[in-house]
Amino acid sequence: MPQRAGVVTLPADFVAREGNLPRHCARHGLPAVRQHDFLLQSKVKIEGNRFLQVGGRGVLGMAERLDQHGRKVRVAEVKGWPLCRRCVRTRALWLTVAATLFFGGLAAFAGSLIAAAVTDGMPWLAGVAVAGFALLPLSAFPFVLGSIPRLTGAETSPDGASVIIKNPSRAFTAELPRS
Ligand SMILES: [Zn+2]
Prior knowledge:
Layout: E1 3-4, E2 7-11, H1 12-15, E3 32-41, H2 58-72, E4 75-84, H3 85-119, H4 123-138, H5 140-145, H6 148-152, E5 154-156, E6 162-166, H7 170-174
Helix pairs in contact: 3-4
Keywords: Membrane, Transmembrane, Transmembrane helix
């Protein structure tokens, strides 16, 4: 397997087969307590013309960028990625925080609107509604922190042919087949 310092590249068909990946986590080098299957996207650099965003053409520019993203993103299937105790705990923690912010925000927002409708106007309820609404987009941050690419440090190559892992642990690389 081609290797650069701190970066390991694995062929996409290698990671797509169950049982090929090491039994130790790529991040912490600890024994895996769970094998996780997921789809890994490539990062897309959009060649956008910023001037398209100016004036009334913002929507057009946006649509073009979304279209480019759809055409350029590559997805690799990963089977049995090793997650250790710490990975699993980190993921559970951040996803819990994200869910709490999201559903807490939603409950505060909806609840205060309903309360305002039935109690006939209490000014502070509007504040609760705004605060609840503000929590919704905030939940995206912990959600990203608990996401698989962030947790594994892996991403799919721009051509979709391989999976790139940045700074994997020694225990992880030691179990990879040598070319
Ligand atoms: Zn780990």
